[in-house]
Design goal:
- The structure is a single chain.
- This protein has 2 domains: 7-80; 159-375, Alpha-Beta Horseshoe (Leucine-rich repeat, LRR (right-handed beta-alpha superhelix)), CATH 3.80.10.
- The protein is 49% helix and 7% strand.
- It is built from 17 helices and 9 strands.
- The chain has helices at residues 15-28, 35-43, 50-57, 64-80, 84-97, 101-112, 122-133, 136-140, 156-162, 164-169, 182-194, 211-222, 240-252, 271-279, 297-309, 328-335, 354-366, and strands at 141-143, 172-174, 201-203, 230-232, 259-261, 287-289, 316-318, 344-346, 373-375.
- Strands 1-2-3-4-5-6-7-8-9 form a 9-stranded parallel beta sheet.
- Strand 4 (230-232), helix 13 and strand 5 form a beta-alpha-beta unit.
- Helix 1 runs parallel beside helix 4 (64-80) and helix 13 (240-252) runs parallel beside helix 14 (271-279).
- The radius of gyration is 28 Å and the shape is elongated.
- Keywords: Leucine-rich repeat, Repeat.
- It holds the Pfam family LRR_6.
Length: 376
């Protein structure tokens, strides 16, 4: 760096040439330590700073032409580099130069909601990332379906990779039915690990997640800095192995998750592992959906036991489309507990017998003050 910017070697450089040398040097930096310096340097090209710059560095007075040359050079670099972080910094550089052409173009796409129909170049995608990162409103919720054409499109994962810097900063990430692959899930998990404390909601429903993908996501949840509150994994093909990884993560970091949807995954007796999580006094889970999960009598017994141990947090439980039969009597014992705060209970198509229904009615007579909704 010192050799590149020795004053004696810059006497005959125009400001545009200096800028280009600085851009090149910053892009070669592996850790981005020159990014802020580059922005500062480009900010000095503002007309009001020129006199000071001439006196200190003996450079030729810059003109609007030199700034245009610099902007053109930066745009060329944006088109050729793969690093989202470096692209974002170059957009900050264009901002310092007062060039907002690429950004305005993308803002129009976003304004009229037709981004998914557009065939964007790499520089335009970089502009999308920059615009979203500098817009707090857009960072509240990230929806991949706003940027892709059709669900389960093979191109979706390319778009996901381009937008990972935005995902890292978003509070809610909606990826339902987007064709998330193992590779895409690995990239997502890596992005979330780098900033685990920001995300509050994650929806990966209707994506086929293998056990390897579930393990990667579980590693994110296990991070003590992870503050995820809502996780939706409906129709994800979660296996026993995937459920075990998830349960292990929640045992390690159980105090933040408030809502979990694992509906339409053939969990079977794996539900017992989730029951161990519910039994943890630190578990704050309020909503648990396990509809059509193949919950067995044994699984239902484990759930009931867990809720007896820690009855005061769960507010909503959905066990619809599971053949529970007389196991419902075990849940009735939970409802009878005066500390039970359950407000919504779904038992649709669960094969509830007359005996089970009688047990439910008896429990509700004993503790009628909390349950607001019962679906049989």
């Amino acid at each position: 760096m010192k050799e590149e910017f020795q004053l004696s070697s810059l006497k005959h450089f125009s400001l545009s040439e200096l800028h280009q040398r600085a851009v090149k040097e910053a892009l070669q930096s592996k850790n981005g330590h020159l990014d802020l310096f580059l922005r500062f340097l480009l900010g000095l090209s503002v007309e009001s700073h020129q006199i000071l710059l001439q006196r200190i560095m003996m450079l030729k007075r810059s003109s609007s032409d030199s700034n245009e040359k610099t902007a053109k050079y930066i745009k060329k670099k944006i088109r050729t580099i793969d690093s989202p972080e470096k692209s974002i910094n170059l957009f900050h550089c264009l901002n310092e130069l007062g060039d907002h052409s690429l950004v305005k173009e993308i803002q129009q796409y976003l304004k009229f909601g037709n981004l998914s129909e557009a065939k964007l170049s790499s520089s335009q995608w970089a502009a999308v990332v920059f615009v979203l990162l500098t817009s707090e409103e857009e960072l509240n919720e990230f929806r991949l379906d706003k940027f892709v054409k059709g669900m389960n499109n093979p191109e979706n994962m390319k778009v996901l990779h381009k937008l990972l810097p935005v995902i890292k900063e978003s509070r809610s990430v909606q990826l339902s039915d987007c064709g998330v692959t193992d590779k895409g899930c690995a990239a997502l998990a890596s992005a979330l690990r780098s900033n685990p404390s920001h995300l509050r909601e994650l929806d990966l429903s209707e994506n086929k997640l293998k056990s390897s993908s579930m393990k990667l996501l579980s590693a994110v949840l296990e991070d003590p800095h992870c503050k995820l509150e809502k996780l939706w994994l409906r129709i994800c093909g979660v296996t026993d192995e995937g459920c075990a990884a998830l349960a292990s993560a929640l045992r390690s970091n159980s105090s933040h998750l408030r809502e979990l949807d694992l509906s339409v995954n053939k969990l079977g007796d794996s539900v017992k592992l989730l029951s161990d999580v519910l039994q943890n006094p630190h578990c704050k889970l309020e909503i648990l959906w396990l509809s059509d999960c193949g919950v067995t009598d044994e699984g239902c017994a484990a759930l009931a036991s867990a809720l007896r141990s820690n009855p005061s947090h769960l507010r909503e439980l959905n066990l619809s489309w599971n053949e529970l039969g007389d196991s419902v009597k075990l849940l009735s014992d939970v409802l009878q507990n005066p500390h039970c705060k359950l407000e919504t209970l779904w038992l649709r198509d669960c094969g509830v017998t007359d005996e089970g229904c009688a047990a439910l009615a008896s429990a509700l007579r004993s503790n009628p003050s909390h349950l607001r909704e019962l679906n049989l």
